[in-house]
Amino acid sequence: MYQRVAVREYRAAHGGLAPGMTTIGLIGSGKIGSTVARLAVAAGYDVVLSNSRGPETLAGLVADLGPRARAATADGAAEAGDLVVVTIPLRAYRSVPVEPLTGKIVLDTNNYYPHRDGQIPELDDETTTTSELLQAHLPGSKVVKVFNNIYFKHLLSLRRPAGAPDRSALLIAGDDADAKATVTALLDDLGYDTVDAGPLAEGWRFQRDTAPYAGVYFGPDGQGGDAGVPVDAPTLRAALANSRRYADASSD
Predict the structure, then answer these.
(1) What gap in Å lies between CA 190 and CA 112, rounded to an integer?
(2) Crossing angle between the packed helical segments 7-14 and 177-190, to the nearest 10 degrees
(3) Cβ atoms of residues 185 and 9 within 8 Å
(4) What is the pLDDT along the chain (252 residues), one digit of tens a residue?
């Protein structure tokens, strides 16, 4: 159920990412978005950043990231990105542009926080998941859930080169096998192994407050602090197996 995608096999068959996939678009440039951008630039990708306040407000971040980065509107980032990361508060997911993302792989970092996002009945009763909501909004795109269960400082500090004994893994979920293979190859470039949790419907297993959520990278009693502690694929698989739905957890 939690099969790890074989990066080496995919790269052998496809030559890494699809030809020409050199630009990451970001709809949202907050803590997770800017960290993903930083990792992407370090790995040799170009990034196109956007936020809700306008490209001019991103001048400082663009300057910090260097010549591989530029800012645009959300539509511009969606159009420019070969892969596009949606990393905005969940309440705003309907603002994500649909047409320019048609046919593209969309990486979704969303989490549901009712105090921030308001109550969403289908998430409260667990009849769907956050990434399934985004997929329904983007019917022509291939959504992959990723980056939602790790603290942004850990995302930066725990990256390691391929083959490092203390390399960490990240979780993904998605309904399209090729899209997940592409995201797995991207994560490999960014410094992470991948554990595939299955289709989007299984994304609940690493949503907020589940066993594989952010705390796992802090280590026991939070001893890892801002630096975090490496978390390998077997550890993530075990955490996934221990995940419980909110209704089940609250009945204890």
Answers:
(1) 25
(2) 100
(3) no
(4) 333 344 455 555 544 566 678 999 999 999 999 999 999 999 999 999 999 999 999 999 999 999 999 999 999 999 999 999 999 999 999 999 999 999 999 999 999 999 999 999 999 999 999 999 999 999 999 999 999 999 999 999 999 999 999 999 999 999 999 999 999 999 999 999 999 999 999 999 999 999 999 999 999 999 999 999 999 999 999 999 999 998 887 665
Domains along the chain with CATH numbers: 7-250 (3.40.50.720)
Six token digits for residue 179: 């899209």
pTM of structure:
0.92
Exposed, middle or buried by CB within 10 Å (0-12, 13-18, 19+), for 74? buried
Cα separation, 112 vs 211, in Å, equals: 16
Decide the pairing of beta strands 193-196 and 169-174. Answer: parallel
Q: What is the DSSP string of the chain?
A: --PPP-HHHHHHHHSSSPTT--EEEEE--SHHHHHHHHHHHHTT-EEEEE-SS-GGGGHHHHHHH-TTEEE--HHHHHHH-SEEEE-S-GGGGGGS-SGGGTTSEEEE-----HHHH---HHHHTTSS-HHHHHHHH-TTSEEEE-STTS-HHHHHHT---TT-TT--EEEEEES-HHHHHHHHHHHHHHT-EEEE--SGGGGGGGSTTSTTSGGGGT-GGGTTGGG-----HHHHHHHHHT---HHHHHT-
